[in-house]
């Protein structure tokens, strides 16, 4: 079979982002989003290792490393494969790593992964000659096949440059039905202590429980990257990974990541009961729609260590919810927050701003709704028009984006104007929304009263002061 391939997987030194195919979020200017381990890249590394490759993984932004460090390491390592984790907003900056690789390690095959390539794979290869291949869809089988030395033209889900520099595109890779068959993410390759739970400062890792979502919100990449069938891992497989994190890596705080965690009630109840029976003594957070919970489920989740649920409420305007194809309403949001609080679980809610149809009046009403919702945490995201989504098509049709335009601003900065408001006006409204939420005496008192240790109290005080300074600077 020959010698093992050397694969170097990196998060490029282009800023702190969550680099998950569905969630491509810059940390800058956001209030509740903590840096996560590069879980997609860790799954890729595990697949490369299963195929026999030797892997090194570096998260350059998390480790405080820069371009000089990357250039030096590429020159020293001369890897067979360089695998880049990219996001759509940071694409142009991220792909400078490919240019650098070709200068210092010209024989290295440069491969990129990211949801961007599901829609714009050929375009990206045409405009970035230093890039050799991109991965489309769920990439673990392709990574394993590459490590085993299979020709690229025989591997599904790859777009690549052949020996004559012509761009070739293989068949799409299907979604993986048996997620239990995947190796656990390669946590042994990352510095797990860099990724922390923001309130306590303890190590926290991401654990992917399921993939796919049957809903089709106009802005969301979940159906594109995970499909419309919600594919759950078995409870036993999830518990085995939790146990490994506890025993091998000494991690007891988890983000259970999914496209829709709470859809399968039976699975949730089994997971909660098994965590309790195994006496794992972990704490975890998850996401949920507002219409997939009930009091009994929440009670078991709480007993199993769930301390926070993030809800994509998105809007307090039922018309906006209809336009974004959310398929829920504000009454269900109020009931979900009420049930969650009664169960003793904290709630974090996401508010979207910058939808094409928004005007000053709808934003005012939105802010009033989220204040009255009185969740424990609020994040205001500017909506981002990812290529391949219905939102992107609408933005181009309405003249909010030029055809082919890819905004660099994302989530914490407006990516585009609306039909009624400029990007500058949107920026002012987000600051107002955050101030109106964060500066409520009731919110401040409740947050501080829940602190369980001096360290947690200090973290909240420091965090609050930093946010107030950030909001003042943005005025």
Considering the chains and any ligands shown, give keywords for the structure.
39% helix; six-stranded parallel beta sheet; Rossmann fold; seven-stranded mixed beta sheet; pyruvate-formate lyase- activating enzyme; 2 domains; globular; single chain; alpha/beta
What does this structure look like?
By secondary structure, the chain is α/β, with parallel strands linked by helices. It has two domains: 6-169, Cobalamin-binding domain (Rossmann fold, 3-Layer(aba) Sandwich); 196-474, tm_1862 like domain (pyruvate-formate lyase- activating enzyme, Alpha-Beta Horseshoe). 39% of the residues lie in helices and 17% in strands. It has 17 helices and 17 strands. It has a seven-stranded mixed β-sheet, sandwiched between helices. The chain is globular. The termini are far apart. The relative contact order is 0.10. The mean pLDDT is 92.
A few lines on this structure:
The chain has 17 helices and 17 strands. The protein is an alpha/beta fold and 475 residues long.
Helical percent range? Answer: 25-40%
Averaged pLDDT, please?
A: 92
Number of helical stretches of at least 4 residues: 17
What is the CATH topology assignment of the largest domain? pyruvate-formate lyase- activating enzyme
Name of the CATH architecture of the largest domain: Alpha-Beta Horseshoe
Q: Largest beta sheet: what is the strand line-up?
A: 4-1-5-6-7-8-9
Topology:
Layout: E1 6-11, E2 17-19, E3 24-26, H1 39-50, E4 54-59, H2 67-77, E5 81-85, H3 91-94, H4 96-104, E6 109-113, H5 116-127, E7 133-135, H6 140-147, E8 158-161, E9 167-169, E10 204-208, E11 210-211, H7 222-226, E12 231-232, H8 235-249, E13 253-257, H9 265-277, E14 283-288, H10 295-303, E15 306-314, H11 318-323, H12 330-342, E16 346-353, H13 360-373, E17 377-382, H14 390-397, H15 423-438, H16 441-449, H17 454-474
Parallel strand pairs: 1-4, 1-5, 5-6, 6-7, 10-13, 13-14, 14-15, 15-16, 16-17
Antiparallel strand pairs: 2-3, 7-8, 8-9, 11-12
Helix pairs in contact: 1-6, 2-4, 8-9, 9-10, 13-15, 15-17
